[in-house]
Structure formats: C-alpha cells, structure tokens
Amino acid sequence: MKLTDAAGGETTVGVTLGAEHLAWLAEAVASRGGRLLLELRPGTLQTRAQSEPCPLSPTEQDAVRAVVEEDTWEAAADRLGVTVATLRARLRSACRHVGVGSEGRLIAICLARGWVPPAE
C-alpha cells in the first residue's frame, strides 16, 4: 500500500487486510475525497473458498473488475463502452445483490471472495 503524506511524500508498505478492513479503509479514504488504489500482484491475493455462488451478473462482474483495474471512473466506463452513469448504476445494482451499501465494501468483498479475481 502506498501512503502519501500532506507534503506529497510516499511510503510503500505491505499489509494483509480482510474484506471488512479493506472496505472500512476504502470508505475512510473516499469520505475524505480520495480513492484507494490497490496494486495486487499475482499470487498475493488469498481468497477464501467460495461457500456460495457469486450473486453478480456477468455485467456487474465486468463493472467491478473495470473499477478495480482502472485509475478513474471515466477510464473504467470507457473500457466497458458505457457512460460513467451507467457504470455507477451497474455498481449500485451489484451492491444490492451483495447486500452492501458502498462500492468500496462491494469491491473488497468481491476480491476477498474471489468473485472478481484481479487481472494477472
């Protein structure tokens, strides 16, 4: 994880977070107008075995994956060939299917459960 201080200095740290902690961190950053960017290296994400099938449609999975892999809402929407409003609507639908109230929590849970694996 890269941490940036008020002066713009960066520090990179390795951390292990569960889905709930990752969701909390993403929400805390977003509430302050920021965005949490994760760099997931192949083999570093450990997911628990899927005890339930993924509740997301393929379209919702694509939306989550695009947001995880792109730097901006616009880039994620462009990748999918949709508007930002359509992308956000798909994420809200995915939030309802998973039973969470925020996109940060949705992404953390999807990654932790292996529903939307990171690109390798």
CATH architecture: Orthogonal Bundle
Order of helical and strand elements: EEHHHHH
How far apart lie the N and C ends?
18 Å
The computed structural class is mainly alpha
Beta-sheet strand percentage? 5-15%
Largest sheet: 2 strands, antiparallel
Layout of strands and helices, then pairs:
Layout: E1 2-4, E2 10-12, H1 19-31, H2 58-69, H3 73-80, H4 84-98, H5 103-112
Antiparallel strand pairs: 1-2
Helix pairs in contact: 1-5, 2-3, 2-4
Summarize the structure.
The chain is mainly alpha-helical and 120 residues long.
Q: Could you walk me through the main structural features you see in this protein, from its secondary elements to its overall organization?
A:
The protein has 120 residues and is mainly α. It has one domain (2-112): Orthogonal Bundle (Arc Repressor Mutant, subunit A), CATH 1.10.10.10. Helix content is 48%, strand content 5%. The protein is built from five helices and two strands. Mean pLDDT is 76; it is low at 43-50.
Task: Describe this protein with a few key phrases.
single chain; mainly alpha; Arc Repressor Mutant, subunit A; two-stranded antiparallel ribbon; 5 helices
